[in-house]
Amino acid sequence: MGAASAILFGGLDAADFTETLRYPMGKFIYGTPSVTIEFDDRVLAHVKVVISTKLRRGESFLFNWEPAEESDASLCSVWLHPAIPIQFEFFGNREPRINRAWLEDLIRTANSNSGLRVTPEPDEPKE
């Protein structure tokens, strides 16, 4: 890819740029000083519902995620508490459709002793 193409795609090659468009990356920003974690918008939309629900109820809990491949860590965690600032930033301009089956899986993990952990998205039940 030429230099002009790299500028056009923000330094990404065409395949990576296309993948970014397919799975826009949003940000979960937590605490002061803040921790910023990138998730694709679809995952972030589901995590937002679970976290917002638990914090609205005044519940504190662990949120676990697998870090980016370039990290030496195998698992990262933060303790979520209603008094600590939280922010969700979405890359795309459309809100992803919520998969009820996935939401239920995520809620189940959030209510466990080990805390919220992003699980693979299951197929939605046929109606």
Give an overview of the whole structure.
This protein has helices at 3-8, 14-22, 41-56, 100-110; strands spanning 25-30, 35-40, 61-65, 76-80, 86-89, 116-117. It has one domain (25-117). Mean pLDDT is 81; it is low at 1-21. Helix 3 crosses helix 4 (100-110). The longest helix has 16 residues, at 41-56. Strand 1 and strand 2 form a beta hairpin. The strands form 2 sheets. A 3-stranded antiparallel sheet has the order 2-1-5. It has a 3-stranded mixed sheet with strand order 4-3-6. The chain is built from 4 helices and 6 strands. It is globular. The chain has 127 residues and is of the alpha+beta class. The relative contact order is 0.18.
Helix content: 25-40%
Radius of gyration: 16 Å
Number of strands: 6
How many separate domains make up the residues? 1
Outline the biggest β-sheet: 3 strands, antiparallel
Secondary-structure-based class equals alpha+beta
Give the end-to-end Cα distance, rounded to a whole number of Å: 46 Å
Rough outline: globular
Count up the helices: 4
Mean pLDDT: 81
**Approximately how much beta-strand content do the residues carry?**
15-25%
Low-confidence runs: 1-21
Q: What is the ordering of alpha helices and beta strands?
A: HHEEHEEEHE
Strand order of the largest sheet: 2-1-5
